[in-house]
Amino acid sequence: QVRLVESGGGLVQAGGSLRLSCASSGRTFSSYAMGWFRQAPGKEREFVAAIRWSGSTFYEDSVKGRFTISRDNAKNTVYLQMNSLKPEDTAVYYCASDRRQYYSGSYYTPASLYDYWGQGTQVTVSS
Question: For 70-81, how does the pLDDT look when each residue is reduced to its tens digit (9 = 90+)?
């Protein structure tokens, strides 16, 4: 059974930074892409970023240049470094594991492509 545990959320002022972590267990972490999604109150869950098993990264347009996704395969952990945070970044952030082993394409945005999810961590950005 795959388990994903997020940490690192919190309250920060606009312009500040946070680093989210997601520790994975129960699957060969290094052979699957990992993604970060977020869900604001009253809105659908949306794609934020993904990192391919090989390390290539993909971002939603509104976070490009501000967020950085990375992975440490030795620690089975994926990170999301969030800089220049805005109030509109306020949401519950979820990490997820892609169901496609060794996928080398560029299609990562639908939540349906991910088969395991963390419990979520709240990020609140005050203005």
Answer: 999 999 999 999
